Task: inverse folding
């Protein structure tokens, strides 16, 4: 192009300025695209969630009162929950996998 025919470049993206976020969270509400049935019962769901105390649901270890136990780490749970149902790999099989099959006999 000739220098006299240059037009200043205007990017296609438009920046609207600095964002200002509210310091208070907005009231909980159902997602606008949620089905009508879920939107209607969202208030009941919130009441149920708020009525359950966080201290009772965050117990660790097995519970003797019949409530559901929540474990912070997987190894705190009984082994039936974190042990795989498939057979465990032997050391020779792991070596074959890690070496890409080069150590397979």
Result:
């Amino acid at each position: 192009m000739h220098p006299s025919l240059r037009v200043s470049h205007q990017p296609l993206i438009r920046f609207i300025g600095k964002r200002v976020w509210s310091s208070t969270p907005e009231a909980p509400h159902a997602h606008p695209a949620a089905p009508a049935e879920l939107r209607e019962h969202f208030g009941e769901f919130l009441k149920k969630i708020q009525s359950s105390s966080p201290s009772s649901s965050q117990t660790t270890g097995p519970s003797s009162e019949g409530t559901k136990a929540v474990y912070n780490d997987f190894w705190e749970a009984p082994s039936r929950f974190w042990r795989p149902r498939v057979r465990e790999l032997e050391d020779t099989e792991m070596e074959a996998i890690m070496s890409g099959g080069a150590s397979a006999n």
User: Anything to note?
Assistant: DSSP finds five helices and no strands in the chain. The CA atoms of residues 11 and 17 lie 15 Å apart. Helices lie at 36-40, 42-51, 54-57, 79-82, 91-98. The longest helix spans residues 42-51.
